[in-house]
Amino acid sequence: MLHMNSRLLAVASAIAIFAPAAVAMGSKPAEDEDAVTARIAPVAKLNVVAPEPAKAGTTGNRSGEEMYNAVCHVCHAPGSPVPTSPKFGDKAMWAPRIGVGLDVLTKNAIAGKNAMPPKGGAADASELEIARAIVYMADHSGANFKEPTAGGKIASSERSPEDIAKAACFKCHENGEKGAPKLSDMAAWTQRASTGLDALTKSVIRGHGNMPARGGLADLTDGEVKATIAYLMKRVGTAQ
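The structure corresponding to this sequence follows.
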């Protein structure tokens, strides 16, 4: 028993002697390592958080006003430095554009036209959103377009002869611009009426003098051209 106690005492003494030496040689208690790690840790940490998903029902279904405020106002707002874009509320600038109809305006906006990039630069915009933006701007500028609904087809705009005349004809015929017969010139219109409505229609379809084909509205049907001429002749008082 005495011999065993002596051996235990020797082992305990060895532990007491070598423990400090182990610390001196680099072995550190776990709590010391944690403390060092805390001291050398960077002041700021980057927490990567997944972006919040878009709210259901917003993408592809924005209203015309939302599209205007988000995208279109850059070029179409009054005071915009882009000279060729029709400005919001400017009936004179919008009149010839309204005359071509909503479907044509929508196609042009999607494809891009002149200085305007495709979809006005809003690559994520749907056809419906583009049409709604056009309706919003045009209806505040003299048009009477019906806003298309989700899932509905953007139908060809219904244009009356008066609408077409306002969009294309009055600009030249009210003031005699580019040699066009004034609406107040009864003699000039009487002379043209004497050739007959069908002959006048063919002349307007192919273009005559300074007047471009179909009065500058390339998408006008033959029937629309004829109906518009008849409207003008009635307005002047030379209708047959």
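The chain is about 50% helix and 0% strand.
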